[in-house]
Every structure is written in structure tokens, then in C-alpha cells.
Amino acid sequence: MIKARHHWFYVRFFRFYTRWMLARHFRRVILKGQFQDTGRPVLLVGNHFSWWDGFFAHCLNEKLFHKRFHVMMLEQQLRPRMFLNKAGAFSIRKHSPSVLESLHYTRRLLEDPHNLVAMFPQGKIHSMYDYPVKFEKGPVKILRGIEPQVRVFFMAALVDYFSHPKPSLTLAIEEYQPTDSIALEDMEEAFNHFLRRMIQDQHE
Fold this sequence. Notes:
Glycerol-3-phosphate (1)-acyltransferase
């Protein structure tokens, strides 16, 4: 697997680049939800519908979470773009023995209260109209046994054009508090309930 290798130049560059890209391509960015730091690491779980998703997670970290940013990427997508590795990207290779190494590495990252890890457990890009969202087992395997020390936040990214040539972007977060025994079905159901409410809010 490829581990994150933060480099000060790339971290600063992507801080600027993310702001510039979103300002250039979106009419406005609306943030919904609140975060108060309690000194615990954050696992950010989002819907995966576009090339933009890592930028969306990075934007939320810059605006709300203010932690050391990490994002899990498929290895075949990260390897040709290794500069992303210097800004916090690390890899997972599906259907490979190295999956366990990637999951263990993520758990280690989530032992540090200064860290945020963003992941998109649908496993690949889907249409934003695919509903309900289906998760692979990664987040549950990561959290099992360490969930009391990690805060889990759902992220919903919603894009609307209305009557404008450039779309508006809504980034919504909500904290997920799993039950005593974390289960994939419970997390999926909670995420879909959250996503459905955020979509309904867009109509109002």
C-alpha cells in the first residue's frame, strides 16, 4: 500500500488549490452542520459520485474540522497521481491481501486526535441518483473496537444548478453515533436517512 507522506509545500498548495477550484467551478458553497473539537480523531464518511469528492472533504476539513487531512483512495487511482500522496492521500487495493494493511494503517491514523480520515465506502464512483447508498465493509472493520475513541461524521455533497450556468454546492455533515455493536446495516441505514433528509432540505 501507499502511505500518506505530508509535505508542507503540497499541504499549503492544496489548501489554496481547493479554494480556487471550488470558487471557479461553483457559484457558491453552502456548509450545513456544526463541529466542536473534543480532542478526538474524525472519520469522515461520504457519498461517492464524482471526481470532486476528495476536494469536498478537503474543503470541509479546512472550514470546519481543522485537522491533519487524510483521504483513502484506490491504489490504481493514486499511483498515477503520487503528488496527492504528499497532501494526505493513501491507498487501498481491493481484492488484495494488502487490504488488511490499509485498514490497519487507517486504524493507526485514527489513534491520533489531530487526524481526520475521509473515505467513500461505496468503493467506486456511482451516479448521484443511485439510492439507497450501499457501503462496503471497510468503515465497520476500521471502527470495530475503536469506535469509542473516534468521532464519525457523515458527509453529503449535493449539487444543484437551478437557473444558473454554474451549480451551487451544498456540503452537509452530521455526527453518527453507532450503537454498542457497530454493524454495516445500521451505518448504511443511518447514512441513507441522513442523505434523504439533506435532499429534502434542498427542495424547501
